[in-house]
Amino acid sequence: MDLPTEQRKDPKIKEIIEALERYEEIPKRRHLLNIRKNSLNMELYLLVVPNHMKKEILYEMYDALSGAHMGVAKTWNRIKTRFIWPKIYSDVRNYVLSCEECARVKTDTTKPKGLLQPWTIIEKTFQRVGIDTLGKFPVTANGNRLPIKRINRNLERMSEKSKKRFDKNRQQIDFSPGDLVYLRKPNRKVGLSEKLLPQYSGPWEIVMKTAPNNYQITNHTRKKMDIVNVERLKRFNK
User: Per the database record, which ranges form the Integrase p58-like C-terminal domain (predicted)?
Assistant: First the structure.
């Protein structure tokens, strides 16, 4: 591949090269446009990548055998010492996150989704009936034999503490109708490691929200619909 020719196919890079060529005292490194950068007491020459070659570079650094689908951080560390172009980190991150093969196999490392949804505390006597073996309770100063109000206050405090403790390490994720998601559905096959098998299927489409933590989803043919908990869903990155 003739890199100098490829660089000149990009109008912005061509304009910079022609401007530099007007000054003969400026050395040209292998007739390529590079940007010099000092990093960790090392002098690096980063190749300026033309716009039409970005995907090719990303493929070689991530999808090819030498890339091995190493994730955002490791792929970025490999690219940033060799190449440069505008918004390079954003392009690397979006490219890695949009890999469907990795999305189906790799587990979700973010916080579990969905907050605790406690029961509504009753406000009226006998709104909810339960049978227990508690008692015999002493009669209060007002002549009451059933300390429902005190029990309600205790239940409210316990419910608030439980919700706060449960939600501490979780996150609230909301999807809208039409959003695409992956559905966690682990595969198990005799003789094969579960880690190497797809953990997610999809993409599925969000139809509607049926409860605070539940969604109705459908596949691309719209012939199958399921109602699943938000904890089993992962956003699909296009």
Answer: 202-235
Rounded Cα distance between 76 and 50, Å, is: 18
User: What are the tens digits of pLDDT across the range 55-108?
Assistant: 999 999 998 887 788 888 999 999 998 899 999 999 999 999 888 888 888 777
Instruction: Identify the H or E element spanning 210.
Output: strand 200-211
Q: Are 50 and 86 in contact (CB under 8 A)?
A: no
Which CATH number does 3-98 carry?
Answer: 1.10.340
Strand, coil or helix: what is 47? strand
Domain residue spans of the chain: 3-98, 179-235
Q: How far out from the chain centre does Cα 142 lie?
A: 57
Distance of CA 28 to the CA centre of its chain: 43
SS3 of residue 166 by DSSP: helix
Direct distance between the N- and C-terminal alpha carbons of the chain, in angstroms, rounded to an integer: 30
Q: Which two tokens stand for residue 98?
A: 């949009």
Amino acid at position 77, single letter: N
pLDDT in tens, 105-164: 877 777 888 888 876 766 776 776 666 656 666 777 777 666 555 666 677 788 888 888
In the CATH scheme, what is the code of domain 179-235?
Answer: 2.30.30.140
List the beta strands (DSSP E) in 16-160.
34-39, 42-48, 83-84
